[in-house]
């Protein structure tokens, strides 16, 4: 009766210890040991701290009694036989180390041992709901099943979250969250991270537009407008109309108008300030000669640029400015490449026009037999012209080897020639009834 009472007390203590450890290690394992005639099976094994050893009677009459165990561990001595209350016995180790035991009835033949080690914990986390939400919302992060650990600590961006010491966390701000756990024997582990993104409703500051240069420019220019905040959805507008395809953070404007941008995310939409862009047209720039620009050396030709309000002029010859040439007309004697720059003095916009003047070895008193060429150089054809030309005046076009390429006879006062010529330099010879009267260098551009 005394032994039965003692066994009952020990059994109660061991069960209490087991319950205590099981409450901290919900997934703890049970290691079964079969007790048969003259053998514990398995006779040796390794378990984690918090696991349970359970001896189960199979045959014979035996006991299990601790012999040498780690300091601080509870000893045990329990009968294992077919009688009620003795068909099994459980023991929950409280410290790590090696536990040796025997059967009192068969002390030399029935020996067993097991080793208790500290388990390496492992933890994973997940979210209950979306990890991307608007300001004022939240998401619950939680341990994915597994054991109950001795301690928990959540971290945000690698730093401890004060007071976050349970298996769940309600996250309300953006960041990278992870969970560190410690088991009952002091080993720790950390989970992988979950990124939480909290979107705010875009503000007027997010939509504010900046320009990369002046918003007033001349024709052909541009200005790039950019919304302040990145990572949003954009729709640029001109006036009240959406600009097709204009859905990037920046938009390049090439024409006049009032421009704005609408920025949005999943939480809302905000419109920007408006920016007025002005494109000023370039002034016209056209040179009109008073006569042919393919003239005799002593002749004058007046080059006239177009006129208009608020226009100023600068003339150049062969790339160099002509001193004092700031009127809309220019009296030209010398051959050369002339250019006029016409500027609108109000807007500052400008445009240029070019004209080439060619001087020809004209005979004195024979001006009526002179043939002029315009344009020269030419990209399409040469226009040969003259006034009161003698009957039988003709044009022959030769390459630089002297090969005749084209022959034309004046019937009226103009001939178009050279359309089939390749780019290069040629010679035109003017003859009257076979007599050479004039030689002209021709340049055909591509």
Indicate the structural class.
mainly beta
Please estimate the helix content.
under 10%
- Report the major sheet: 6 strands, mixed
Q: What is the global morphology?
A: rod-shaped
Distance between the termini: 124 Å
Query: Count of helical segments?
Result: 2
What is the overall pLDDT average? Answer: 89
> What is the strand content?
over 45%
Calculate Rg over CA atoms.
Answer: 52 Å
Low-confidence stretches: 1-26
Q: Report the strand count.
A: 42
What does this protein structure show overall?
By secondary structure, this protein is mainly beta.
Quick gist of this model?
The protein is built from 2 helices and 42 strands. With 446 residues, the chain is mostly beta strands.
List keywords for this structure.
single chain; 446 residues; mainly beta; 6-stranded mixed β-sheet; 48% strand; rod-shaped; disordered N terminus
List the helices and strands and how they pair.
Elements: H1 2-24, E1 30-36, E2 39-41, E3 44-48, E4 52-57, E5 62-66, E6 77-80, E7 88-91, E8 97-102, E9 111-117, E10 125-128, E11 132-134, E12 139-143, E13 151-156, E14 159-160, E15 168-171, E16 175-182, E17 188-190, E18 194-199, H2 204-207, E19 209-211, E20 216-218, E21 223-227, E22 233-238, E23 241-242, E24 250-253, E25 257-265, E26 268-271, E27 275-280, E28 287-289, E29 294-295, E30 301-305, E31 311-317, E32 320-321, E33 329-332, E34 336-344, E35 350-359, E36 372-374, E37 382-385, E38 393-398, E39 404-409, E40 414-417, E41 424-432, E42 435-444
Parallel strand pairs: 1-4, 3-9, 11-18, 20-27, 29-35
Antiparallel strand pairs: 1-2, 4-7, 5-6, 5-8, 8-9, 10-12, 12-15, 13-14, 13-16, 16-17, 16-18, 19-21, 21-24, 22-23, 22-25, 25-26, 25-27, 28-30, 30-33, 31-32, 31-34, 34-35, 36-37, 37-40, 38-39, 38-41, 41-42
